[in-house]
Sequence to fold (1212 residues):
Amino acid sequence: MAKLRVETTINGEETEFLCSGQDSLLDVLRGPLAMTGTKEGCTTGDCGACSIVLDGRLVPSCLVLAAEAEGRVVETIEGVADGQKLTAVQQQFLEHGALQCGICTPGFIIAAEKLLEKNPDPTEEEARYYLAGNLCRCTGYDKIIRAVLDAAAVRREERA
Amino acid sequence: MTLETSRFESPTDVEGAVALLAAEGGAKVLSGGTDLLVQMRLGAGAPQVFVDVKRIPRLMAVRLGSEGLTIGASVPAAEIFENESIRSLWPGVAEATDLIGSTQVQGRATWSGNLCNASPAADSVPALMACGAVAVIAGPSGERRVSVDAFIKGPGKTVLRRGELVVEFEIPAPPPRSADAYLRLIPRTEMDIAVVGAGVQVELDDGGAIASARVVLGAVAPTALFVEAAASALIGSRLEDAALDAAAAASRAAATPIDDRRGTIAYRKKIAGVLTTRAAKIAFERAQAR
Amino acid sequence: MSADTNEGQERKFKRIGTRPIRHDGLDKVTGRARFGADYALPGMLHGVMVRSPYAHARILSIDISQAEKVPGVRAVVTRDDFPDVPIGWIPAGSTGVDLGANARTVMAREKVLFHGHAFAAVAATTELAAREAGKLIKVEWEVLTPVLSLEQALAKDAPILHEGQETKGDHPTPEGDSNIANQVCFEGGDIAAGFEEADVIVEGHFETPMVHQGYIEPHACLANVREDGTCEVWCPTQGAFGVKGEVASIAGIEPSLVKVTPTEIGGGFGGKIPVYIEPVAVVLSRKAARPVKITMSREEVFRGSGPTSGSRMWARIGAKSDGTFVAVETKFDFEAGAFRGSPVGAACMTVFSPYNCENFRIFGRDIVLNKPRVAAYRAPGAPIGAFAAESLIDELAMKLDRNPIDLRIQNAVAEGDRAKYGPRFGTIGFKEVLEATRSHPHYKAELGPNQGRGVAAGFWFNAGMQSSATVSVNDDGSAVVRTGNPDIGGSRASMALMCAEELGVDVARVRPLVGDTDSVGYCDPTGGSRVTYATGMAVIEATRQVVDHLRARAATIWDIELDAVEWQDGNAVAINGSAEKGSMSLEDIARKMRLTGGPIVSSASVNPPAAGPGFGVHVCDLEVDPETGVSKVIRYTVVQDAGKAIHPTYVEGQYQGGAAQGIGWALNEEYLWDAEGKVENAGFLDYRIPVASDLPMIDTVIVEVANPLHPYGVRGVGETPIVPPLGAVANAMRHATGIRFHRLPMSPPRVLDALDSDGASS
Fold:
């Protein structure tokens, strides 16, 4: 079967790729586009490692078909940092040691950025529930939550 | 031999979607994909044609008027929950919607998917039933309206015929001094499928007693279940203990659950009673506040 | 390195104990870090494993002819493509791995022994083609009755998994073939007299389910066998040298031809020590003459990779009325899965070793059955045994009306006391940890309604084993430290800190690397809580050699005796009669390396036979909803002896992560099986690991009782934190509900059932 040609915008760049009708957006990001920062942990929407932002919404890229990206706007971990400058979330993850193995980290950062965009001053409980779809098996979440809450404070200061 | 991969279509109007679904037996509606694509990964096989309906404006539209809500079938759960009007008018429906999967999944999952997947444990279905929601179905012979409670025929089975899809939901405006609530039980705090779900809607009379009620249970029968006896127990009461106990007993009696990896029969029956009373209390307090 | 170089007690560190940003952190927060599945090669094929639909069946024949005809298929392999490694073959000098069993775990030979056991594999140009081809492999099965429980395995006429397997080990063993693979027994004193002497006896039967390590990164592997027979493998593994050895043996390749590059690893917890797909990717690549990548699905991870044992246990403790333990006894049955090798031995060794007791009999059996073969999981066996022991100690404290920490302190081992498995403890910090717990604010905090507090202790040996490190100085005075231990939780930062401490430079000036098997000296796996301890020793030793070189270069430049040069915080300093020479910085010496003798590079290897044991005590507050049985951990504190925390952030991280895994094990995690032995919950939806909203912040207290075996006093910290939680949560549940739970997980239905039946125990 002929491949589909899809034009989309990824991290601000107009991008085109070929895919089959059943390829997920995750498959295409990690395969043909070689953007392996988005991780695959389950392919069933249960782990959050493949989180991306699609037209402004946080979604699991394993549950998005690649062909759906036509004309849409995709944001991935590779586009989070502002040029050479890390975001407050990225920086706080480093400061807090909020990662051990690091496989869940891109998904957490994408989700945490979206959380802070929607809720600049989340409580611990709000952060925990918002991020409940991002599994981490190494950290027990303590340092991750602290990093997110501190990043929120840094962002509020920067915007004050 | 050749290895077939799926076709992908994204019609921009309802007629186009109906035509594709009618023409191809192997065509499936792709709304949020949070059930369809998961089933595919777990071995169900890819459909011949994916019909992505999210480019049909009507399926993504939200209209709120004095009559109630008309909402496109593919509006994602996250957008529904973010809508302050929906949250304040139908807090139970909003709660149920907010419980469907993770934040990420809510960016995709839709009421129509939750309904058409026809799982007994769907969170939005009992809540929608409690509010008298109706699904608007489009098909080759036009449109029809089916109330959500009549939509599911059994696990995985719905009233949809070939070529049909859900295009909208309608929820009538809540009567004055009425409110709804939804609760579910899961082993963790998030990320699980409901072991039991309970949606309750109550309307109060001028004296503050319950004039009418709906009690709907999820995950305790092949389909979400109206528990008339529980509703009757609540009617006329101000949620005195006797009324709550009777409603809980009615829910326990009505529940005919199965043993599976998410819960036992005995446990589900008990929880059906507990959640009935807890959801009734929340709905009652909300109605009092209106 | 000998104890006389130990400075852990008195040395003032400048960099050890600080919290620099880890060197690999940037790549991990930007998505650049490359994990197992992130590697690709031109012309790469996609490999898939084909797995058994039966839990127990003999393979009579396999026909791959239809599969080979599928367009895009380049290779199909089965047992016939692998050498027949005899079962029970343990190479001399190895760590005791049964390579025959490992080979059969990777690719079934005579039988499939669990649902999901791989019996073939396909490589094709697309994953879809490989999967379709897999479905066309025709197997003639002789389906056998599966053995799905310990009861069934031990039944008189039980089907035997391994014909010819006789029970090994201690004490009267059954006659003939048996599913009991091994028996272990540790005895001391007079057990009968001990219980005779006891004023009070507590005992109980306990059960724990099979649970999975639950790492978020599925196993993945890329292999390329080249025309000359050399072979490269990239995979996320805890031990690249182990993969190299096992690939060679199982795929039938000279070890010298195999190079393994460990990628970034997305969690392991012991489960990425074994090989599952690496030898298969190699054999597929050899057959197809193309690079082959295999990535497990999450479902395959749950069905086909290593859980840890389910167990049935009985234990009892006899004590005097003053609380002194006078007799302890256990009978443990552990599920090994398809092949011998459950961690029952370690469970027996650890279970009562934290406590003095003259009279003991600790008995355990390793039992095979038709479930996935177990793999190491963080302190293998110890959490299971500690669940029984720490639950009983809690019961004993209640019976004697004693504070549970005081009762433990009274019986706690200290330096010189003998562990139940033989040796005497060196310097350990158990009492210090117990005392720190007792004085922690958490332990004194008020509890609300439906809340309970549990305390439990745990112990893990920690490992030494073989490690190598190489340190090289760059001409700008920066340094590179290279080891062969995959960094699974921040160990590169620790290696750099130790190197920086010795060199006296900022840690940012030291770049830590994990090398492949061709570029570094041998290292045993990242496991056993050994890397910061043993590999750290090699790093310190290699760096000290580098410092000696630097001093020698300074002496050459100054033209003075080596003894007249001291190394002080990054500078060579002339002393004694040469003090007028002043000092010379590392940068200065490095710039002149070319003129003073060339590059400065040193390597060191260590093989410490022992490590410093780690003791931890956890405090758990649990709240239970009495109407639903749902419980939630509302406060949790981990207190543990780290010896010396090199990078405290990652020490805390180990404490928190281990506690979280243990909490999951206690409350919700379990494999669920259908009647045929298929895992029903092979995904993260229904295999319920804790999510962020399930847990509170996890407080940590790092106690530092220096380990005399390590120059800085380090003890491994990775494994001990998963030992206490099962008991701590169960004890909290006891105090919240009045019910003693003997069976895990304490999931809501079980809790409610127990509450409603007014059961004093469940």
